[in-house]
Write a structure and sequence with these properties.
9 helices; 33% helix; disordered N terminus
Length: 261
């Protein structure tokens, strides 16, 4: 992952010297820092974000009649829109086409953030069963499956296979073993700022955002805000503050912005 900010040089150098985490930190922002929020609502789920080189893609899932279906709300459930059909099959196909690499550029990595909307334990058990049908994905070091939304307690993280990671929170407490199962740290943007993404953010709000980002980095984890303003001014701010995944519903616009930067 890539960042420009001089005030993070010490942290960046530390991360570059130790690349045991999923991403090694470099010095420039790219599409690998982009997160496709609620990606299934795009006209071309998975494909649009993938073709723009996004480093993270989000899918909300429900366990319904034994199927893992992708939808934001229960009323929108369509049994044809399964996690396998929309994401796992296309990802496996692309990986096969790239001879085992998730992207043609073998250095690029992909996080699939799976947001569980129904019962955490039942859906997660079903997800493990489904993922085990995709050995090319779960054994690929450039792909990481991170569970968000309804999650088990941190004390239960170790009960899940090595290919399952969890979306942590800044306020949650983790022992050393549980922390190793945390794939990233996420938090609601509006807990720290009310800026609408236009013009300049107030200094105190900027400081509050930076504080929580730094807390995640001190834990050795990458960071993402959700419920963010989705504008060029906000993307620029998040780059400056060192947000590792920039949240967006505007896949092509953010991709174009990052290329220009």
């Amino acid at each position: 992952m890539k960042f420009l900010m001089a005030n993070r040089r010490s942290w960046l150098l530390l991360m570059m010297m130790s690349c045991s985490s999923f991403f090694c930190i470099a010095q420039l922002v790219s599409s690998s820092n982009a997160h496709s929020h609620n990606d299934y609502e795009q006209q071309r789920p998975f494909a649009l974000a993938y073709e723009n080189g996004f480093g993270s893609i989000e899918a909300d899932i429900w366990l319904k009649d034994g199927l893992l279906v992708v939808a934001h709300d229960a009323k929108d459930i369509d049994p044809k829109k399964t996690l396998s059909a929309l994401y796992l099959d296309p990802l496996a196909k692309r990986t096969a086409e790239n001879k085992g690499k998730v992207y043609a550029d073998g250095k690029k990595e992909l996080q699939l953030l799976i947001d569980i909307k129904s019962d955490a334990k039942a859906a997660l058990n079903a997800l493990v069963t489904v993922l085990e049908k995709y050995p090319s994905l779960i054994h690929n070091k450039k792909i990481r499956f991170v569970i968000s939304g309804n999650r088990p307690q941190p004390t239960d993280y170790l009960n899940y296979p090595s290919f399952i990671f969890f979306d942590g929170r800044p306020a949650e407490q983790y022992d050393k073993k549980a922390l190793k199962k945390v794939g990233l740290i996420s938090e609601n943007y509006y807990k720290f700022a009310m800026w609408n993404g236009k013009g300049e953010i107030a200094a105190n709000q900027r400081a509050a955002l930076l504080s929580v980002i730094n807390k995640a980095h001190e834990m050795g984890k990458l960071f993402r805000f959700w419920a963010t303003p989705d504008t060029e001014d906000s993307w620029k701010l998040f780059m400056e503050l060192g947000v590792d995944y920039i949240n967006t519903d505007k896949v092509e616009a953010l991709a174009s912005f990052l290329k220009r930067k």
